[in-house]
Specification:
By secondary structure, the chain is mainly α. It has one domain (2-218). It is built from eleven helices and two strands. The protein has helices at residues 2-28, 35-53, 57-80, 88-111, 135-157, 159-169, 171-176, 181-206, 215-228, 233-254, 256-273; strands at 125-128, 131-134. It has a two-stranded antiparallel ribbon. It is globular.
């Protein structure tokens, strides 16, 4: 039960990361490889608010989530906005790699290499089938589910969300219908960075914080959008939960060596059957 709870908590963190990546990739056509560093820096900013300004943990996570959304607006406008006569994918990769190095180096200089930790979201544990399952895992899952549902309803039920969906499906066609692609791009990066900020705050509360903590969620996020299908919100959900449960359960049963390769075996197996991903369109 502890392994399942840990796996679900990890899986939902991966889902939040993958949602931001798939929004930016499907709407803007860019690969934001610095997304993991946004996650990492968000955890450090939450730590700073608690350590230096005596914020409440929940208020700090909420504040950083909003702040990262605002930062996303500036990142899109200054760095990632597609420009004429440039290859958007190649340019974004170069910019993102540079941003990754800058943010990682800044974290090392400002916070050091030693691991830091945040207070738990909730102390104590539930007794389930004779095993103790930490309450903070359930709370992290609840926050992540709420963010997922909010995004899903936003995309399906609001005009802005439907415009983003249209832009993702056909950027040129949506432009002819009066949808401003620059606005959609700004919203995609803002939402993606806000989700990474939330994931960073939650991840910092259930894991340890260090300058390189963003690498694994970033890799998992990329794997998830391939596994679930590019641009698919349900695909990101299913793919994230699959990888999270594998990371939580397999090390307990088979050991860390098997756990290291199990996700890739699963991904390869699914892609052999569904080359476009679980929910990808053929």
């Amino acid at each position: 039960m502890q392994a399942i709870a840990n796996g679900l908590a990890l899986g939902w963190l991966y889902v939040l990361m993958a949602l931001g990546l798939t929004l930016m990739l499907s709407i803007m056509g860019i690969l934001q490889l610095a997304h993991g560093e946004v996650y990492m820096f968000s955890a450090y900013l939450v730590f700073t608010l608690l350590d230096s300004f005596n914020f409440n943990l929940y208020l700090a996570i909420f504040t950083i989530t909003i702040l990262m959304g605002i930062v996303g607006l500036f990142l899109e406008r200054i760095l990632f906005r597609p420009r004429p006569n440039r290859d958007p994918m190649l340019t974004s990769i170069v910019i993102a790699i540079s941003l990754t190095l800058i943010l990682t180096s800044a974290a090392v200089v400002v916070f050091g290499l030693y691991q830091k930790s945040l207070p738990r979201l909730l102390y104590g544990s539930f007794e389930i089938f004779g095993g103790g399952v930490p309450k903070d895992r359930f709370l992290a899952i609840a926050f992540s589910v709420a963010a997922f549902l909010f995004l899903y309803l936003f995309l399906k039920k609001t005009r802005w969300g439907q415009a983003m969906t249209a832009s993702a499906q056909n950027r040129e066609g949506s432009f002819l219908k009066g949808i401003n692609p620059n606005q959609m791009s700004m919203m995609a990066v803002a939402i993606g960075c806000a989700l990474a900020g939330l994931a960073g705050g939650l991840g910092g509360a259930i894991l340890q914080i260090n300058p390189y903590m963003g690498s694994l969620p970033m890799i998992k996020g990329l794997v998830i959008i391939v596994l679930g299908g590019l641009g698919s919100i349900p695909g990101a959900l299913v793919g994230g939960l699959i990888l999270g449960l594998v990371d939580g359960i397999v090390p307990v049963i088979f050991g860390s060596a098997v756990a290291a390769i199990a996700p890739m075996i699963i991904v390869i197996g699914i892609l052999l059957v569904r080359p476009k991903g679980i929910f990808g369109h053929e």
